[in-house]
Design brief:
Elements (H helix, E strand, L loop, with lengths): L2 H9 L24 H15 L5 H5 L4 H11 L2
Length: 77
């Protein structure tokens, strides 16, 4: 697992947001397209791609895409 691939997987969840605008430092909650539905998609993507249990509290406690990545990478076996 690496940060670049995580960012690509994260960016794929957005239909209208240009993937090139999403970086490690992107404050994902500030994206116009961010919603509770996208949050659920993030949780599902993390479960499917990384086999990591991820919760809404993890998203609420994160600000940037890298914050999400750090949580997931700390839980990968």
């Amino acid at each position: 697992m690496n940060l670049t691939q995580f960012i690509e997987n994260f960016a794929d969840l957005f239909d209208e947001t240009d993937a090139d605008t999403i970086q490690a430092t992107t404050r994902f909650k500030d994206l116009d397209e961010w919603s509770s539905l996208v949050a659920l998609s993030v949780i599902a993507m993390i479960d499917e791609e990384y086999d990591v249990e991820f919760r809404g509290d993890d998203i609420r406690g994160s600000n940037t895409v890298e914050d999400l990545y750090n949580i997931v990478s700390s839980r990968v076996d």
